[in-house]
Amino acid sequence: MFESLPASLGVFGVASVIIISSGVGLSLVADRLADRTGWGEALLGGLFLAGVTSLPDFAATLTAAADGFPKLAIGNSLGSVAVNLAFLAVGDLVYRRANLEHAAASSSNLIHATLSLVLLLMPLLAMVTPSFDAWGVHPVSVVLLVAYLYGHRLIREDRLRPMWWPRATAHTVADEPEAVQPRGETLFGLWLRFLVLAAITTLAGWVLMNAAETIVAETPLSETVVGTLFTAFFTSTPELVTTIAAVRYGALTLAVSNIVGTNALTAIVIAFADFVYVGGSIYHAVTAAQQLWLVLALLMTSILLLGLLRRERYGIGRIGLESFLILLIYLAAAASLPFLGD
């Protein structure tokens, strides 16, 4: 879409600002909807808010895959998973009363984190096994869609009939509706605002990836570097903004569920990228650099899951040990990426 490099850089910056600005409104509206609908922060954050904040990723990844940039597409998705977990660690830094994973204890968040781990393992399985596809689509992509739907059925059942409860402590922040609702605020109005902000973030994500394709073509930067670091970061900024905003609003369960829900949905984005990529199965169009980032994403998710189970009150610098390790892994991986090749 953009043939000029200066124009692409300018559009990239504008689209990034729009995505960030929309994220602030989304977190507030999602918190209101969780209270008004009675669905709770874990379900609404893990499904609806995660779905909306994933839209820039969705638009960017599918655009790159359809335009024949598989490494840019997969790099964007996997980089988003990793940076989202780093964003949750930033949220832990913002919340100073206790470790965020301790305060936001929720069985739904545990299920969502486990689901994201399972779903991300499936693309890795497709990448390391012999190349196979039917009409250009790997069977794993279909299995991913079914597994995601089943996972959300489990989360819905847990909301209705929980079989496990975290032990409440002085630092636990329960997911409870606000006693006083803003006057004149209707449920229809909230959903309308939510959908408008969703449309804005989707359009911005599509524009951002078109600009990124020109940056890849006009600079020495590889698809892997641009996708895994730059587009992944900026298309994921709604997760950063909504996480920090949710923490400041006291909607801690919403903050965690948004991240783990988004990462579970990212696996579905990869599956859809396989459907629109015309060069065969997209899983076999990637290199060792993308596989490494997938392994790192799995490692970071596993550390988060352990943190949600262990529920450490305080750790290094008043954040959890898992948050410290996740930040360390992400920063080390980002610093080494330019040396890994395309």
Molecular structure report:
The two termini are 24 Å apart. The mean pLDDT is 79. It is globular, with a radius of gyration of 19 Å. The chain has a single domain, classed as Up-down Bundle (A middle domain of Talin 1), CATH 1.20.1420.30. The protein has 13 helices and no strands. The protein is mostly helical.
Looking at this protein, list some descriptive labels.
342 residues; mainly alpha; A middle domain of Talin 1; globular
* SS class: mainly alpha
| Major beta-sheet overview | none
Low-confidence stretches: none
Percent of residues in β-strands:
under 5%
Q: What is the number of E strands?
A: 0
The sequence of SSEs as H and E is: HHHHHHHHHHHHH
Query: How many domain modules?
Result: 1
Q: Measure the end-to-end span.
A: 24 Å
Under CATH at level 1, the class stands as Mainly Alpha
Approximate shape: globular
- The number of helical runs is 13
Fraction of helical residues: over 70%
- The CATH topology is A middle domain of Talin 1
CATH superfamily: NCX, central ion-binding region
Q: Average pLDDT across residues?
A: 79
* CATH architectural name: Up-down Bundle
